[in-house]
Design goal:
It is built from 16 helices and 35 strands. It is of the alpha+beta class and about 700 residues long. Strands 2, 3, 4, 5 and 6 form a five-stranded antiparallel sheet that branches. Strands 7, 8, 9, 10 and 11 form a five-stranded antiparallel sheet that branches.
Length: about 700
Amino acid sequence: MKFFYSLLILLVTYSAIAQRSPKKAFGDGDYYFLNEQYDKAAEAYLETLIQDSTHYNCAFKLGVCYINQPYKIWKALPFLEFAVQGTSAKYKDNSYKTRVAPYEAFYYLAYAYQITLQSDKAIEYFEKYKGLGKDTSKIYDDVDVRIAACKNAKLFFENPKAVEIQNVGRNVNSAASEFNPCVSENDSVMYFTKENVTESDNSIQVSYRIMRSYKSLDPESGEYVWNISSDITEELMTEGKCMTVSTSHDGKTLILYRDNDYYGGPTSIDKGTLYISYLREGIWTPIQKLPGVINTSQWEMHASISKDGNTLYFTSNGFKPDVGMDIYYSEKNSSGGWSKAKSLSDVINTNFDEASPFIVDDTVLFFSSKGHNNMGGYDVFKSIKDTAGNWSTPENLSIPINSPLDDIFFSPVDHGHQAYYAVERPDGYLSFGKKDIFHIVIIDPKADSIALADSIAAAEALKLETAAAVGTSNGNAAGEIASTNATGKSNTNASSSNGVQTASGNTTASKATNNQTTQTSQTQINQEQYNTATSTRTSASQTMVSTFEIQIFASYVPMDIQKKFPNLSVVEHYGNESYYRYATGPYKTSQDAKADLQRIRSLGYPDAFIRKTQYYVDDAIKFDLSQKHTVQLFASMKRINAIRKFQPLKNILEKKTAEGMYVYYYGSFKTWKEAKEEADKIKASGIECFIQNLEAIK
């Protein structure tokens, strides 16, 4: 039934282009398929199915096309579910006359279930595929590995990682693929690779450009954002398939990888090579090959340099070709050269491939591996080195950071509390193209608050330091003083170590010993007005409340909730990157949220994940939380003087979300109509606003 329903939708969508005969369309599909142009192949196979809806082989091939486009894998399910009904051992060739599907359809259907986190169904169909016969099972000998991965995925599904994942925005991402983000430790400059694809009648040309983006303060939003990226490829003098690998702690050294074999280079020497470049007087030096103690005649693909610049961690299959990709390290010797490479601990390296090592603070290693307790493809892991030099058992970073697809190149910042990575996600994720760069904030459920990075551009450090000095003149609770050092990083000089750093880098909130909270502004707003509005707030007048929610979806345009989520009670939020979040909740505890997460994913939302939210309840404000609706006025990464900004409005509630954003609401109303009438009056006064469900902030 799902197959014919999908075909009906496609019939409406593609009826205008269905002009080729089914045989001609099928042949064109095979041509594009062999050339790995899966989007065009899918279009051709669709034409065939529109005219010949019982062609099992065509349905199978269409499903495989979607499998090869990770952001469309969910579309493969109805076609592969149909194809397995028409499999046969007599399948011999790929011609249009062959209407039956091969037994491989069972494998691909199981794989599609695995990728969409329907692990039980995936295991069922992998087992069916194994039972079809030894000769067939040899086609894909990773079935047992995938079954084990599905079992791991079920465990991670029940215990997801508490994270916040956001697209870094249009200034970096585009309709093309952007990947391999390398970000300085202070989160102020990003280097990444952009794929440019040029199509002609007979061929596809792919080129790789090295891009750079700085983060700076947006005067309109008061937030730190990534600027429009610039191309530094010519400066580096790269050519061929050359891409970013990592940057140093200060962002002034770049390591790059070149696939020499890709553009017809020598296949016997330097197949994949690591290069290095330095930023000198504002200009990047032409890339230079790292020495032979690191580069071999095989593949060296990823590398990361320690904070002190004396140890290089990298991947290679050239030292032990029979064991695949492992992580190695090399240390600088007394003459400044690199020592002979050594294999990293067997605690890290497995019999499977390891990739993309990133070293943090010289003791924490993030890397990707197809081994360990994996849930499919590459997963991201974390290991910590103790004082004796021993690495801890790698920790799988779980869902939603990891998925059954390849999760690779997890580039950490802020001591590992945040990271950047590029992924192709199924439709429903906020994305601009095939592969986009995303920002991840890792939430520590054991902490009183969420550790977020500064995101301060180094060029603005002096200005922020001056603002901080002015802000401390009024004094803080319990003698705490917030300051900014020359690198733009925030420090708290106090007996308490429970500071909160906001994602914009504008504010440092320090918890006093008497549970009072003081917040010092480091932004371009009037410091005296800010301090007057945000003076010491005691627990007698304000209480911090923490809740949890399950995010389902994100979009740059508002959605019709009832149509988009007919089987869920969903609340809409407006996020700090000018997009809308849709979530269920709130839940009082993370356990309550976890208990409901599996139900929500089973309803067709496999990428749902848990978010923590925090907000203040002020006893001095008469805000009736028993009502149903409110009016949202504003959201910002910096705290504002709400009374001054929204005068003459009263009865304003401030809520602090998990990502450190401050959201402001006006009034509480029993009916939507009452809230709408008030919202119209507010808009007429020149203040933009919209109606929000109070359940979202209780």
